[in-house]
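Lecture 7 notes: from sequence to structure.

We start with a single chain of 299 residues. Read the sequence below before looking at the structure.
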Amino acid sequence: MRKNIQFLAAVAALMFVAILPTATRAAGSVSAEELDITYVARLGFVPIGRGEFSANYSRESYTAQMHLRSAGILRWLVRSTFDTYTEGMLVDQLPQPDYYISDFEGRGNLYQLVHIVYDGAMPTLQRADPTYDTHLSGYPVSVEQRRGSYDPLTAFISVLWGIQFSEEEPCGDSVPVFDGRRRYDLRFSYEGRGALQVSEGDKWNGEVTICSLLYDEVAGFRPTPEDDELPRPPLLIYIARFDESEFHIPVRVRATTPFGPLFLIARDVLMNSEPMLITPAEGLERLPEEQADYDPLGN
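Now the structure, written as tokens:
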């Protein structure tokens, strides 16, 4: 059961933090812009959360923040909020964070503040309040494992500018992440293309690229007993292109959990406060509607 809860928490974190907009434009060509995205999360057909992402970026620097909160029946059971913020510079057209802050508050006086600072490509945990449990000291993240890794929101920025993406690998490869305690890789794979229709007034009807995402533990994790081991099916990300920009943004994410299918669905996407519309699909196979049991990977 402990492993099941950990897995669901990891899936939720990935869906809200790591799986975010992608773009094909080069970072150095981006002028001052503001991007805002609102997501809702469902377990099956039951609303359980909401996420609001905002980024400001130019040719030289970027800032990004995310506010997450439980909603629906989950808010009644586990009232919680999670806020993250990062800012940094562009070095050789690559994002280089200066610092990252995350702040979690949950029911029953649960609280966790994390502050990471960067010296070039080297992240260091500046503060954890409360401090991480002493038993985690037996599972450290080495200097070399931390070197060159991103905080969770800068990992998003690296995908936002399409740094990991190419014509040969439409979904990219992997992104290294250090969140202050754990070091992991987000590993993407290309699964195909299709025409997606989402409800709410057919707001996001059009062409999507389907990517799968696996969460690979590198360091900072306690070993899992074999009898508590849980397989982790990949998350599916449906990435759509929008007419008003070169951005490709996930309009739906699907995860298989022990508690049922978990969905993340874009409800509003704004560029400089203006709504954006998806590019229509032409000559592509129509994917099913939002079915809780639909999974092209067969999980």
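The two ends are 21 Å apart (CA to CA). Keep this in mind for problem set 3.
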